[in-house]
Records
---
Amino acid sequence: MQILLVLLALTAALIIFMLWRTARFTKKDGEDLPPLDVSDRVPDQEIADHLAAVIRCATVSNADPEKVDWSEFDRLHRVLEELYPAVHRTMEKEIIGTHNLLFRWKGSDPDAKPVALLAHQDVVPVGDVSAWKYPPFSGTDDGEVIWGRGACDMKNHLVMVMDACERLINEGYVPERDIYLCFGQNEEVGCVPAMTGADLIASTLRDRGITLDLVLDEGGAIVSGDTLGIKQKFAMIGVVEKGFADYRITAHEKGGHSARPPKHTGLGKLGAAAVRLEKAKKPLRLIPPVREMLIRLAPYMPQFILRFLTANIDICEGLLLKVLSLSPLMNAMVSTTYALTQAQGSEQDNVLPKDAWLGVNSRILPGEDIDGVRKFIEKTVDDPSLEVTITKAHQVQNISPHDTKGFELLTELTGRYYPGTLVAPYQQFGGTDSRNYYIVCDNVYRFMPFCIGSGDDTLGAHNIDEHMPKDGLGRSVCFMMDFIKEYKGEA
Ligand SMILES: [Zn+2]
């Protein structure tokens, strides 16, 4: 009896302790302050005009280089020459491979490790042209917004980097460390064929014995906290990318006439496999940047359970993971995902399938690997007659640290230009060129200092009506100018 009372008292004490921690952890919503006005320093309109000019080059990439209109890339290079004469006068410019651009802005200190600012020149196809509000390569300026393919992915970022450098050169600024501008030609097709895009630029740098102090590429941005129920905006700085792999589960059968079917056709077996795969418990894990993101953002979240569990993450990690896995967005942060995306049976309704297959697109958490995921699928579908193969995959396991000078400066500048914005590291689901640069750099960050509105408003990236608001373009250029000037390196 006494033991029971002691246990009860201890449990009550623990709960009180956890509630006390939660109360201390909980932050009041701060104000969502207006961003800094820089219209006298860098007018939005000037950057908008540059963006429109760059959008007019239809630099659509394709995994088959024969299908690319390379003259549009040549045109883009000419437009950049016209828009940015100081950059072209001051920096060494090289074409790597066929159309990748590599600029080197020589620094005053040859011992300081260089920085690389990345962007991709290419864009995705426009889809149904007639569905667009304005022609996709018109760069139409409607007074508020610039319209066109590449407006937010990522000719905005490319123009921002070029404008920042052009303006600094014109101010007489000389960087301390070398600044490289690396503009790949085929990010949107994942640098296919291999060694033709960012992978080629990065290995060229490596072969020259260059290691970089920091790489900055597209990825995270400043977004509204709406999707998480947070009042403030938050800046998501990508420090890691999930791996990507396509698997095919194939049922090899004899085929034949559908009037005399076996008990299970290949397609039937695949159906059962699909159910098992979707139902299977997937391992849940908090990788360090996701843990840090939760610790930074959870205090502002309205859900008590998330604040309580995160405030007591050292005691409740398992339960927290289970709660997170209930939301598709957060589940993708804490586990490898398996999406059944494609299927094929026979070619005709009265023919039994011979080699039916199911396609699984998987996004892999760092710490797990491509073949490990294949084995998981094999074990889960639990049918030796089914074959599981990998059709396409890429993965880097690297996680960039979030306690570096670079991350700190990105945080500070976000506070300067977008006051009241929360900053957190995050795990990106999609791939970027930057994953190729881990061979020359440990500190690879994916962040565009642009406001992209609420979670669902992706400004039409990879969709029709891609656009970029003009308001804020000058601010992003100021951000980048300060970044170049104030980055002091890790050493
Ligand atoms: Zn992009």
---
Amino acid sequence: MTVEQNQTTERGSERIVLRIPTDFTAEEFARLCRVKPGSSAFEEIEDALPLIRQYASPKAIIKWANVDRVADDETTIEGVTFHSKVVADKLRDTPRVFLSVVTAGDGLERCGEFEGDPFLNTYDGALLFHASMYVVNYMKEKFGFDGSSSLNPGSLPDWPIDNNFALFDMIGNVDEIGVTLNEAGYIKPWNSGSHIHFSGDGYQNCSLCRKYSCVGRRARFNRAEYIRIFGTEP
Ligand code: SF4
């Protein structure tokens, strides 16, 4: 069962803390890990699942925010101005967004049973994906909001990682879910993510990312869109 806490922030918007269930079957967790039933990796998952269910601690914080103003490459959200062509382009006609921080948590690392386990990063990656999908579904079911399009600090050079500092400040008290930033703005634990979710066009960062050979690519590079937004050849 989800534990959900609603809290009001100083800026007045609702801040919701989600503790995300981990009552997977082996088949469900294997699918998240992209492992086929019947394989040797599936047997590893079956063996590890009781501990994963016991110790995994994926969590999220989400918060509504109003988009105050978009002009050129500046976007002001609840008084905080971001400088980014892609953020301005995507939020130009968007009055309201959801901010989120989502994490797989460090429950598996902390329990000690997974020390040296070569599958640990796969398990944590699957937990983060599960938590991210859970958050998007939660927004849809609770608020009728399609938050499947999202912008993430650091995913493109146009919106660098140090924008996490402002995003975390806007959400407030993110360390409540065990998530912090290092001096450069990278998130700890590693399998975590920060987002501005907007209702829209199915945008994926990968469509504007020039790491052409990335194995994690989820959308084809869109050259025409790159030129339209950045005004230059990739
Ligand atoms: S192509 Fe790879 S590096 Fe670029 S945004 Fe997508 S997943 Fe990230």
---
Amino acid sequence: MAKLMDVRSPFPRVLAIGAHPDDIELGAGGLLARLSRSGSRVVMAVCSVPTQAEERLAEARRGATLIGAELVTVCGVEPVRVEDVPMHRIVARLDEIIARERPELVVTHSIRDVHWDHQLVHNATISALRRTPCDLLAFVSTPELNAASHFLGDCFADITETIDIKLEAVAAHATQTAKGSANLDSCRDIARALGRISGVTYAEAYEVLRLRL
Ligand SMILES: [Zn+2]
């Protein structure tokens, strides 16, 4: 995949869609930072902020800034869980963002992620992309919590140059690292293991859902 992407890189416009603050950083922070640094406009769309809205939004803004991305919220800034928002409303809001951004590449949660909210966002993304020709990759945001999904990925992005940015962006979510739902050591270890599999120092794994050659 890294080689395929190099053929057409950089994607001028990239959209990442995550259920909660820090999901995108954990799953795709390295690739997004790499694309941003190679000239792509990167937008990170966070669907909901379930708790501590003000604090977690500030963390999300910092994470996006480190990655070199613009942050947008899908369901507003009031505390809400994804499953409490009607699916048609999430899709309608994603429709607006996609129509505005016209992304060549979209990155979102894998349906194999065991977190229910992540599966909902995956389905909303697929629905919102019904008329948009773009490449589509899916990630699992915390592989160590998704052992039951048997997800390893079928393409790999070399993030050797951006692993430190990714970790800094994950660390920006101090509320999450403090409670242990994001672990920086695990994050680096997993990137190193995926790098070993794909022949680089650090990597992220993706599932290819749509690829235009
Ligand atoms: Zn999440």
